Amino acid sequence: MRMPLIAGNWKMNKTVGEAVQLVEELKKLVADVKDVEIAVAPPFTALYPVAQALKGSNIKLAAQDVFWEDSGAYTGEISPVMLKDLGCQYVIVGHSERRQYFGETNETVNRKVKAVLRHGMRPIMCVGEKLEEREAGKTMEVVKDHVVGGLEGLSEEEMERVVIAYEPVWAIGTGRTATPQQAQEVHQFIRELLAEMFSKETAERVRIQYGGSIKPENIAGLMAQPDIDGGLVGGASLQAESFAKIVKFYER
Ligand code: 13P
Q1: Which of 131, 214, 217, 245 to mutate to test the pocket of ligand 1 (most atoms within 8 A of CB)?
Q2: What is the pTM of this model?
Q3: Looking at residue 209, what is its pLDDT?
């Protein structure tokens, strides 16, 4: 059985004060949750205070990005050593916004995935097609390219520590969620691809999250699908109440 992982990607939102207030509220609302793994990914500037606020709670810390070198002359970058030092257990890698605005490619995503694994953290690797790619019937082709390119050179043991987030770009921040069937179709495709690339056993162990306009109202339908193992939540993770409702999808 795969333990669901529901993570909040706060993107470029929240000052230190706002971040700490959000997790203080969230901690109380999800304190009784046992069968769902919960994580939040604040901006870099709030990671340390949020890590302190999360101590002793059932919420894990994630970062939104990382550079692949451990240290050196890379002005403005953050290394996996630094994230590990703060207590990060997950790192989001290859988000479509980073691919779109910051030139992230399968090759840089692959380097980052390996850097995260090398330091004992777990990457959440994002994949997904743009609207024009879906409309051109290229969804599976694009997703395959992201999956194969991003995971190149990983061992089975490493692969089992990776989380894949399927985030159709047309569903991010648009209020237009993929239907549970549309998402399931791609998740199943990804799992079959992992079975070919690694093994059936490994493919069965890897968690595949859905992301894109998740809300308290649509999470249960998505989670009911056999290959959807959690969610990567943007906008609805910026408020404790809505994120807690998503985490407790089984009550819906
Ligand atoms: P929204 O939930 O705001 O659509 O964002 C999804 C996302 O990009 C999470 O990484």
Answers
A1: 214
A2: 0.98
A3: 98
